[in-house]
Request: fold
Amino acid sequence: MSQSIVILTGAGISAESGLGTFRDEDGLWAQHRIEDVATPEGFAHNPKLVHDFYNARRVQSMEAEPNAAHFALAELEAKFPGTVLIVTQNVDGLHEKAGSQNVLHMHGTLHGALCHACDHRWPAPATMAPHDPCPACGTPATRPDVVWFGEMPYGMERISNALAQADVFVSIGTSGEVYPAANFVNEADMFGAHTVELNLEPSSGVSRFAETHFGPATQVVPEWVAAELTRSN
Ligand code: OAD
Reply:
């Protein structure tokens, strides 16, 4: 039977591409209040502030290049004899830029726009503003297609099914502070997957992983991918 690998990624995998993480010193949440820029209430209160925050991140991510960790995961998907699913909390699009195809954006993407009047989705322009009309219904109710605190992450049913069938679950560059992603290791473990953490330093859920490797993603991810491909071939 073919093997299945599910990989959860967080901001740490893109840190060496120059994109800031959230909870590290100088991270995004040290500079902005979550309530102001990453909640539906914050958007209702000051949509321009929220658009400006995501516009800046969109421009930064368009200029960023994938690093050796993103490329290693794309190589894994291309060469592994079973299935590889990347479930990412990142909204930056660097997995796709590196060549990964089976990517689920559970927190949405900076490169998408969403109309909160009619739910129409379309590719986001480089910058968005509060009164941009929806191309489908014309309502000036457009927002970035990202998931905010208090909203349901995307693809949860597909993720649960994948975790239930995973032989290996790998968590890369995420602090384990945000649910439901922080609980994926428990779900995968419960269904019998081998669990691996690759991170700069131990996450808050480190004790729940069977195997751990600590160091920068550009080092530990290519090393783990090379070992996994050797094991599987
Ligand atoms: P965090 O900022 O919480 O955690 C980043 C993790 O990456 C930490 O564990 C760091 O130790 C690690 N890290 C930093 N540099 C690294 C490197 N070069 N190589 C490997 N690891 C490195 O970011 P996330 O866990 O992704 O949600 O945050 C989860 C969610 O919280 C985000 O998707 C976002 C945020 O609030 C929403 O906005 C809804």
